[in-house]
Design brief:
A five-stranded parallel β-sheet has the order 2-3-1-6-7, with helices on both faces. It has a five-stranded parallel β-sheet with strand order 9-8-12-13-14, with helices on both faces. Helix 5 packs across helix 6 and helix 9 packs parallel to helix 17. About 50% of the residues lie in helices and about 10% in strands. It is of the alpha/beta class.
Amino acid sequence: MPGKLYFVTGIAGTGIAAASEGATGTEKALDKFGGWRSRLGVGAPVKVIKLEDEIARVAKPYLEALEPGRRPRWFRLLELPRPTQVRIWQESFTNVVPKISEHRDEGKDVFFTFHACWYHLLTRQFTSIIDLRMISQLRPDIVFTLVDDIYDVCARLSVEGGIFPSPIRRDPAEDRIFKLLTILDWRAFEETLAERIAALCGDVPHVVFAVKHPLATFSSLLDGKCPTVYLAHPIGYVRDLWREGGSDKHDTANAFVREVEELTSSLRQDFTVLEPTAIDELCFAENEFGPRWPQPGRDEDLLWRPPLEDFWNVPEGQEEVRNALTGYLEDKIKKHINARDHKLVEQSAGVVAYRPCAPGYEAKGVKEELQHWGRLHTLGERTAVAYVLHPPQDELARRHWELGNVCTEWWQSERLRGDESEYNSFVKEGVQEVSVEDIEELDGFAISSRIRTVLDKYHLDLYDTRLALGPLEREPAAQREESQEQLGQEFLSRAKDCYLWALQDQGAAVIVSDDCTASVFASDVARQWSSTSD
């Protein structure tokens, strides 16, 4: 039986299969995967065919013609005129096609690796030299784009023999951030081109896969025996706790990380799990680089190696330049995260969301991912529902968060008045004293009475003295009562208007409101999935 064919793309520095001349000395992802599969006896034998190796061989006489007497170096390929690059690519591709067929006929799974997009070192632009007519003649089973953190990619490309061995900007801080921005755009072009190649090759699946996933996850994805689910959970909440410091906050953050690890491990028994934290790039705030999300298990179990050294710190005296550019870099990273996570949702058969309101507020990233799933479900692109764990303590925290928001807006508009220190104490502690467990059964007047009782405790007043304009104005007591009910109604409206309930009402999600462990939730998801799939 012929082996399968997989296209594997990725920008330079990701480590998919660099040519020997440009290798960083690290074990490359697919070579590592082939060895792992062979040791475990899992699946068919693996053969990795690296187009860039053949390109380096074919390009040798062209490079020697430009620099007689000098040893050709890999990165000089990226300086050749584009017509020459195209000719080299076509010849190299023609040379490897028979090898692909030969190994597949031997029953081997062939991973054909190439860069869909190059960065031209002279013109400083992204370019693709792929002949789409030629490559579309092959029919891969899947087209993969492997991705990694921009910091790690940049570090690998900055070593001697890499694409960025020397500064491309005079100022060190500016140079470093410029490279990171370049890699962000480069990776986006790579993904777009790979997606187009997949469409031209018979509309085969295109999968973006972060190399810090476990080897077993990549193998499971290839086998296709388990449904693929995207795991959504708060990330910024944990990172904020780490940054704030203090043993209590660190303990809370680390406990949540362990819960996610427990859930991931349990889900892997029945699903192929795609994890958003396999790429962790938004790990800085206020111009300080913080800890990345920990990768569970051993380094040797990952498709690629763990993060490299810190690539964020800059030489002393360069902080001002770095800080000025950080905001732009942060904005770019957020946009890329949004696009990538939407793609990961689209390439999954289902979504599992863990405690999206754990900090009390709605985690923005999780909300966008679940709402995107809702759109896919409504439009008939996906039939499975999303499974969301939203325990009672998170719902109470969310309601108190909404109450705090409403009161803050009233304070800022001076409809809520009093001593500022008392107000700050109310927001920090008093909000939690308002009973909100049974708001489904209450009207605006009933909940407003509870709120008013706590406001009185902190000497905060709902009477707006600016309304006392003349003898025909109502008594302060009547005005207070009216404001009190308005505050209650506004809170109820927000507390009941949660996107989770909207998704459940449209049939796109099942909200599990039990106070259960991560592993119990995973078992429940597997059971419900099995029952709806039969």
